[in-house]
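User: I'm curious whether this sequence folds into something compact or stays loose and floppy. Could you predict its structure so I can see for myself?
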Amino acid sequence: MNKLVRYLKKNCVLIFTLTIIILFVSIGCSYIVNTFYNLIEQNYYIGNTTISFQVNSFEKISYKELLEVLKQSNYNIFNTGMLGDSYLVHGIYLNKNLKIKPEMLDGRFFDKDDFTDDTLKLAVIGKGLLTRTISNGNDLYIKFNDEDYKVIGVMGNKNKQKMFDYVMMFNLNSLTEDSKYIKFDKNWILSSDSKEGAPSVIEKLNKILIKNDKDVSLTSIPLETQMNPLLTAFDKNKNKLSLFYILIISIFLNLVIIVQQWMDGLKKQIGVRKAFSAKNIDIYIMIFRNFVMNALIASAISILVHFILFLTGVLSYNNDITFVNFIIAALFSFIISIILLFFLVRQINRLQPDYIMRGR
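Assistant: Here's the prediction. I'll summarize afterward.
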C-alpha cells in the first residue's frame, strides 16, 4: 500500500494531466459514437439500392391497389412522411427482413411475416406515444385512421431521447380499398439489397400500372446522397469537437513540460542502469512501460469521472459510456506513450553514467 502511495505521489502531476486529456477524448468519442448510431438508426430503410419516388394522380388509385403494384418490385416499401394525430407516421411493407432496425425499448420490430395477412393492423410506436395507447388485457392498442392498431413493439431508449420517440410505424397492407386515409403522394421509398437501377424499376412499375388501366404514374425523385455515417457524425459535431481539440492541444503542450520534469526525475535511475551496462533499448522499454502504466491509470480515472458526470446529469444523454470509450482510451494511451517516447529518445541517448554520478 505504501509503495502504491509513493508511486502515485511521484507521478500525480503526470497522471492528473493525462486524466484531463483522456477525459476530453472520451467525451468527444461519446458524441461521435452516439451520433453515428443515431444516423444509422434513422436511415433504417436505406439499402444497396434506395429509390425515392412520388405518385402522380394518387386520387385515382387506392392505397391497396398501389401497394399491389409496388409489391411486384420485390423491394421493401416505405412512406416516411405520413401523419397521425399530431405525430409522424411511417408506413411499411417488408418483402425481406431489415438488417438495421430502430432500437427497441419493448417488444419487437416488424419482420416480413407480419405482412402475410392484410386483416392484421399492427403498429410499432416510439416511447413518447405510450400515453396515447389503450390497454386491452395484455395488449396495447393505438388509434390510427379511426381504427385500433395492435402495438407489437415500442421504440426508444430508457435513458435517452431518440429520433423515433414520437413516430408510429404501421403495416401498409392494413389500408383497405375503401380507406379514407389521406393520400400522401410524396416520401415514398423502395429499398433493396439488389443492384438494379432506379430507372428500370420505376419503368417496370409504370408498365404494370398502364397494363392495369390505371391513369397513375410514378416519378423517380433524386434521393439525397447518403453520406458516410462516421464522416457525417464528425461533421454534425464539428463545433463541439473544435473546442475539445483546442483544449486537448493546450493541455498537451503543458503535458510536454510535465513529461520533461517527469523525465528529470528518472535521470538518476537511467544513469545507474547505464553504469551497469544497460542497453538503450532496455531503457526505452522501461520508460515506455512506466509511461503506459501512468496512462492506463489516467484512462481508468477519466472513464470513472466520465461515468460519474453522466450519472449525475452533468453530461447530457449524448455522453454516455460505451465499450468504444474503453478502446479509445487504451489506444490513445498507447499512442501518446509512443509519441512521447520518441520525444525522449534523444535525451536518453545523450545521458552518460558519469554525468549522472557527478550529481548533475
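Summary: Residues 2-42 form the longest helix (41 residues). The chain has nine helices and eleven strands.
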